[in-house]
Specification:
With about 500 residues, this protein is mainly α. It has 21 helices and three strands. The protein has two domains: about 90 residues, no CATH class; about 400 residues, Neurolysin, domain 3. It is about 65% helix and about 5% strand. Strand 2 and strand 3 form a beta hairpin. The longest helix has 28 residues. The N and C termini lie far apart (about 75 Å). It binds zinc ion (ZN).
Length: about 500
């Protein structure tokens, strides 16, 4: 059979399995009743096995390899698809099956071990698992490419084309330029808005406000929906079916608002991708970093702007007249942009957030390069928190044990969070040359911003690499200076000016 036709058929079949499995995943995370999980696990186990067999089927692999041999003759899109498929295959086939299965078991066990360790503040009970996870990741990276530094290979897994060299440049810029600035802001006198922020906010009304936001951001309700879940996330099978969740806390109203806006950023990116990629390997956002750039753009650059609250504070006040009594627009702007040195990454504000990521990057880099052992992790973690943020965790649950990523084998993922946020500032800089953002946000014309992002970025899906896209949009390669300038400009105006 014609090679390309066979390739297309394989992809369609694989996508059909992924479609059903991920629909079940959406259901598990939103509405499935407790007692459904046992049978669901069994059924999904059967389908997952089938899927894995399909992906590793010698015929499927053979088709990809044959296409790869004639890569120069293929058109651009097919070239990129085949390269992606080949990379995925090479990542798996070079690992001896026994080792792969052992690793999967290790990751499975490590979830519970980590959860217990975190609950009981017992790092020593987790560190052996962590040491093994690090070793496996290193070994697998070397199977894939024995000539590359394993951390470079791992970084590329989460953000195509990124290496230590670029991340070092990025984080060193943050260290020299941002850390001293953050210290200044942390030391500045600030008004305390905690009473307002942590007041009681009826959850039903929070739901109404988030529902209102869905329209403010021009999310297409015919091709998606919003629900609630414990951990907010975005889910999609195609641009025509994009769903997301937020999380409601009665005494922390900003949780639902900013989680919703963050996920709306991910969701609008997915909705605006061209449907022509649906049956190809070029569907979906191009990378973790680029995805996070969109969620952070909507959450921070739009959602935490003065103009945004100029437009939407009235609606918020209408829902909560008592809680917002005496709260002016300037109060609201300051309240949504509070800065505080805190121990927990996922609760960190826009300004201190990248410093949390720096701690993790430094540690991963040293671990994979054998410069430190897992025994030293808690003390190195605490020292770095003190160095960057001026605070020291009192226990490991609030320190090295706080995130799920490492127990799940995700090493190399963290830096994309900070990178994505930095991309967003660089994209914002380019956008401001063409759009008058404050006006559009204030006049509730976010659809114009969506349109700009669609044409410059979203519609391409993964048909371009993040690096290609960034150059296309901004005219230059990744440059952290835009991010640092954006943060300094915004936060010195809020906290360091004398007015
Ligand atoms: Zn996100």
């Amino acid at each position: 059979m014609d090679l390309e036709k066979k390739f297309r058929e394989d992809i369609k079949k694989i996508k059909a399995y992924v479609y059903v499995l991920s629909l079940a995943g959406w259901d598990s995370n939103t509405e499935a009743p407790r007692n459904s999980f046992r049978r669901r696990g069994e059924m999904l186990g059967v389908l997952s096995k089938e899927l894995f067999a399909l992906q590793t089927n010698p015929n499927t692999i053979n088709t990809v390899n044959k296409l790869y041999d004639q890569i120069d003759m293929l058109d651009d899109h097919l070239q990129r698809e085949v390269r992606k498929a080949k990379k995925d295959i090479d990542k798996i086939v070079n690992i001896p099956e026994e080792e792969y299965l052992e690793y999967r078991r290790l990751i499975n066990d490590s979830q519970l071990v980590w959860e217990d360790a975190k609950k009981n503040d017992d790092y020593p009970s987790f560190k052996e698992n962590l040491a093994k996870i690090v070793e496996f990741n290193k070994k697998f990276a070397l199977y894939y490419n024995k000539d590359a530094n394993p951390y470079d290979t791992l970084l590329d897994d989460y953000e195509e084309g990124m290496t230590m060299k670029e991340y070092d440049m990025f984080f060193n810029a943050l260290k020299t330029d941002l850390v001293p600035f953050v210290k200044k802001v942390l030391d500045a006198k600030k008004r305390d808005y905690s009473k307002f922020i942590n007041n009681n906010y009826d959850v039903k009304k929070q739901e109404q406000f988030c529902d209102y936001l869905v329209d403010v951001f021009n999310f297409n309700r015919e091709s998606g929906l919003m629900k609630k879940s414990v951990h907010p996330f975005t889910w999609n099978t195609s641009p025509e079916d994009v769903r997301f969740t937020t999380k409601y806390l009665e005494n922390y109203v900003f949780s639902s608002i900013f989680a919703a806006i963050h996920e709306l950023g991910h969701a609008i990116y997915e909705q605006q991708i061209s449907t022509k990629y649906d049956d190809t390997l070029l569907s979906g956002g191009t990378s973790m970093g680029m995805h996070e750039s969109q969620s952070r753009f909507y959450e921070n650059i739009i959602g935490r702007s003065y103009e945004f609250w100029d437009a939407h504070l009235p609606k918020f006040k209408e829902l909560y007249p008592e809680q917002t009594q005496g709260i002016t627009l300037s109060d609201m702007y300051r309240a949504v942009n509070q800065v505080e040195a805190s121990l927990i990454r996922i609760e960190a504000d826009e300004l201190t957030y990248p410093l949390h990521i720096m701690v993790r990057y430094d540690i991963e880099r040293m671990l994979i390069n054998d410069e430190i052992t897992v025994d030293e992790l808690p003390s190195i973690w605490n020292d770095k928190m003190e160095e960057y943020l001026g605070i020291r965790p009192e226990n490991d649950s609030e320190g090295v044990l706080q995130d799920v990523h490492w127990s799940d084998g995700m090493i190399g993922y963290f830096p994309t969070y900070a990178l994505g946020t930095a991309y967003s500032a660089q994209i914002y800089h380019a956008m401001r040359k063409e759009l008058i953002l404050p006006k559009l946000i204030k006049e509730n014309q976010i659809d114009k911003i969506n349109e700009w992002l669609k044409e410059k970025l979203h519609k391409y899906g993964s048909s371009k690499t993040p690096k290609e896209l960034l150059v296309m949009i901004t005219g230059e390669e990744f440059n952290p200076k835009y991010y640092i300038e954006y943060l300094k400009d915004k936060y010195s105006k809020i906290f360091l000016s004398r007015s």
